[in-house]
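Sorry to interrupt, but I need a hand with the structure work. It will help me judge whether the discrete encoding reads sensibly. Write everything out right here, beneath this request:
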Amino acid sequence: MRTRSNLCFLVLVIAVGGYSRGGPVPMSPVGVVPVPRARLCITEGRLEALSGSRLAVTVPKMRAFVAAATTQSVEARLKYLGPTAAGSPLGSGEMRRQFGLKLRAQDGCNLVYAMWRIEPESKLVVSVKRNPGMRASSQCGNRGYRNIKARRSSPVPRLSPGDSHTLRADMKGSEMRVSVDNHVVWEGDLGQEVLSLDGPVGVRTDNGRFEFTLLVGELGRPIACNAADKGDD
């Protein structure tokens, strides 16, 4: 009887996302709904609406957030089309090609990133950008970044033009999980400081062309589209 009970418990654990030995109980994924172009606030660059909720970006820098209250779960079903015709360096001067999800995007100086770096290196990086007392990107620039070490991680696929994948990030409290194609690639605790950040989810791209659908856990009350506060570098 005990063996059968243990087997049932193991099956239940696997069903909700696996068992992380020595770590917290895994977060259960939640359902998502697509975000139409009209519910996105574009703070930099340009997004083209395709059929359905599909979006396209071809400019070197694009920044956007969901102009609605959401849970801290965001997913992008993306297709990488290659580099942009022209490039734009980051605030640090580095030339990087990447696609990222934003969470707890309080403003342009205080938010969380899950960035899929494509070139010159292929990896997933989770960062907290924190600049207390500052709001606009013109105030903080690229200062205040802190990369967070994962408790558990695995390599992301190396992206080539034409590749399609699903990138997803979920936060519960200070815990964060990032997955690619339903496979966990980053999991860890961002620290208690992130609990003071209050804002929607969003997306950013640098120097890459993409088609993608952005999905969130819910679309609640509208949030004002204030490009000065939400733009980021």
